[in-house]
């Protein structure tokens, strides 16, 4: 059975409306302040360290993103990996249920548009809002870096930083799609926010560090022969990695590592055999770094799409009445 | 189209096997105000949502303006205006901006949009507050804004779900006036309500819902005849000889009660005022006063449910 007309008719209108709602909301004010403060803090901490330590580094500029002060081991990336999910969840947790609760949903859907337009519109508006904030943050950091370091970045550094920005937006997409899904499933915005935040805490802090290794040890118990010589069992380590990569936070951290640290040759276990002939510390070209991070990047985008589709299906089947 | 702008045939909605709406059939003609009445939970809103294509139809068929709301929801929604139960607007936007959003969704061009919004707000008397945020609006103002949206849309059918519930009497009267006005603009109206008295005054025909089915349908006097066996009360004050017998002989009169030597109450199945007057004059009497009380929907409704409940009790 084919539907008449385009499913995305009215999409632009919804995006513009949601975007203007986001940009004029108190949430946006909070985000703007967070962006400015984070940028200042990150650059300040990184520059202190860079000035002290790194005198000759071909990728000095990228160190802005990855360097932490010894006393405070927080890098710009670790800032981001917490800030971005919070931003995305903040944008999405009440996207659909607020329409239910304000009783606007049935009125809006009785206009000549499909539900698709509403859902896509909300997702894109959220993503655009986050992208604007992230772009501002990115430019602030680079600008401050230019002023404070006094060293212009090379073309490759800019390219790496830019791809990193795009990946960060994809990472935001995962959490936005998740928040949107729960805003569809739960009628109460508070419940949706709590469940999304809970899942974020679980996936970011509990799963990759503790639970994934516990599960891995259960699936592939460590071999006593390896244990005897004090080495981890390869199978267990591999399982650990596979399981940890179910968390978007792990994927994001790996991509950031590969992109911003050109010397990074692989993500995951490396056998000694593979290191033969390698020049330690020699940077990879951008293309090779991308190849290393590609599966993770695809994983992030695929995660976004899958979560969005689940939300889409639930939304299409949902009754509009309260 | 044979004049029917809404046609429902055997419309059924099931949730997990339980029928919420069970084989409902009715037709609404162009230019009429059709009332869908019944207690809460009788399936009124579900029926409306199915007509709009906002809820899947489990069984049966619906045609709105010749379109199938399941297959061609956009065509239906373009020409039908809907005012949901307890309509909501974006509280952070002004009244005019709320309408602008809808107008953009409909696809109106800027000039046409502003013109229509202005006209619609004027029509419902909200021009003064057009630039106020809807968050400050009362219930009645929101309902009126909802009607303004339908006017702006130039809808051919207005579907109003409980438009008067929760409003004070004064506002209700104003709102019903606007609804009557819709009819003058050639808009057909389907309105649902559980408040009978108010609705009776505007509806041309009504369908009475109970537990997912239509149990009664027709004009109010028709229903009065069906359920109350008439329901008109004509009161006559007249001086004359043997009037009671003459009234009883009038066709359609079922019972004559003498309230006082010169006052009679005739229970009849239709308005028999002319015949009653003729009877008085024919008897050489003097007619002092003549009044009629039409059957009330309230009475029909109460009696109907009394009857069915008694029927059930007898059956048990």
Structure characterization notes:
The complex is a heterodimer of chains A (322) and B (316). Chain A has one domain (11-317). In chain A, 72% of the residues lie in helices and 0% in strands. Chain A contains 14 helices and no strands. Chain A starts with 10 loop residues before the first helix and ends in a 5-residue tail after the last helix. Chain B has 316 residues and is of the alpha/beta class. Chain B has two domains: 4-218, P-loop containing nucleotide triphosphate hydrolases (Rossmann fold); 232-293, Alpha-Beta Plaits, CATH 3.30.70. Helices cover 38% and strands 29% of the residues of chain B. Chain B has eleven helices and 13 strands. Chain B has a six-stranded mixed β-sheet, sandwiched between helices. Chain B has a four-stranded antiparallel β-sheet with strand order 11-12-10-13, with helices on one face. Chain B is globular. Chains A and B meet through helix 1 and helix 6 of A and helix 1, helix 2, strand 5 and helix 3 of B.
């Amino acid at each position: 059975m084919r539907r008449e007309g385009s499913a995305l008719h009215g999409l632009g209108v919804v995006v513009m409306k949601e975007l203007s709602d986001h940009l004029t909301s108190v949430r946006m004010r909070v985000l703007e302040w967070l962006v400015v403060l984070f940028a200042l803090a990150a650059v300040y901490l990184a520059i202190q360290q860079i000035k002290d330590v790194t005198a000759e580094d071909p990728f000095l500029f990228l160190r802005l993103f990855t360097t932490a002060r010894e006393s405070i081991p927080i890098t710009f990336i670790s800032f981001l990996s917490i800030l971005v999910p919070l931003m995305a969840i903040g944008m999405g947790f009440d996207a659909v249920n607020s329409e239910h609760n304000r009783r606007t949903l049935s009125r809006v859907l009785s206009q000549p548009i499909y539900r698709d337009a509403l859902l896509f519109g909300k997702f894109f508006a959220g993503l655009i809002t986050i992208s604007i904030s992230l772009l501002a943050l990115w430019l602030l950091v680079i600008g401050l870096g230019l002023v404070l370091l006094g060293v212009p970045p090379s073309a490759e550094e800019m390219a790496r930083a830019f791809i990193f920005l795009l990946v960060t937006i994809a990472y935001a997409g995962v959490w936005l799609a998740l928040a949107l899904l729960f805003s569809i499933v739960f009628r109460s915005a508070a419940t949706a926010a709590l469940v999304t935040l809970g899942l974020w805490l679980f996936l970011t802090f509990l799963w990759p560090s503790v639970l994934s290794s516990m599960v891995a040890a259960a699936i592939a118990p460590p071999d006593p022969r390896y244990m005897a010589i004090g080495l981890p069992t390869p199978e267990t380590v591999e399982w650990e990695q596979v399981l940890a990569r179910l968390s978007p936070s792990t994927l994001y951290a790996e991509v950031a590592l590969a992109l911003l640290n050109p010397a990074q040759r692989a993500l995951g276990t490396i056998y000694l055999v593979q290191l033969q002939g390698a020049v330690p510390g020699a940077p990879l070209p951008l293309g090779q770094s991308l190849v290393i991070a590609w599966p993770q990047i695809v994983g992030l985008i695929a995660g976004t799409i899958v979560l969005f589709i689940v939300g889409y299906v639930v939304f299409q089947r949902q009754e509009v009445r309260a | 189209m044979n004049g029917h702008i809404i046609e429902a045939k055997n419309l059924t909605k099931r949730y997990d096997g339980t029928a919420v709406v069970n084989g409902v059939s009715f037709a609404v003609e162009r230019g009429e105000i059709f009332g869908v009445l019944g207690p809460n939970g009788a399936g009124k809103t579900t029926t409306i949502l199915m007509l709009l294509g906002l809820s899947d139809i489990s069984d049966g068929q619906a045609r709105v303006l010749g379109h199938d709301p399941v297959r061609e929801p956009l065509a239906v929604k373009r020409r039908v205006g809907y005012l949901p139960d307890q309509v909501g607007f974006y509280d952070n936007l002004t009244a005019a901006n709320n309408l602008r959003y809808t107008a953009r969704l409909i696809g109106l061009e800027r000039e046409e949009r502003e013109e229509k919004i202005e006209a619609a707000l004027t029509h419902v008397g909200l021009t003064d507050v057009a630039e106020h945020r809807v968050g400050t609006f009362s219930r009645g103002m929101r309902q009126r804004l909802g009607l303004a949206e339908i006017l702006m849309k130039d809808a051919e059918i207005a579907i109003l779900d409980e438009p008067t519930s929760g409003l004070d009497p004064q506002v209700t009267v104003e709102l019903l006036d606007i609804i009557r006005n819709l009819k003058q603009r050639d808009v057909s109206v389907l309105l649902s309500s559980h408040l009978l008295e108010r609705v009776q005054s505007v509806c041309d025909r009504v369908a009475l819902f109970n537990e997912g089915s239509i149990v009664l349908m027709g004009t109010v006097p028709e229903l009065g005849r069906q359920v109350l066996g008439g329901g008109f009360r004509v009161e006559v004050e007249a001086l004359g000889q043997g009037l009671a017998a003459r009234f009883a002989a009038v066709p359609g009169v079922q019972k004559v009660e003498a309230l006082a030597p010169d006052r009679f109450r005739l229970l009849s199945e239709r308005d028999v005022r002319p015949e009653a007057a003729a009877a008085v004059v024919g008897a050489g009497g003097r007619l002092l006063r003549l009044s009629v009380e039409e059957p009330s929907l309230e009475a029909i409704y109460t009696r109907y449910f009394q009857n069915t409940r008694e029927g059930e009790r007898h059956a048990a």
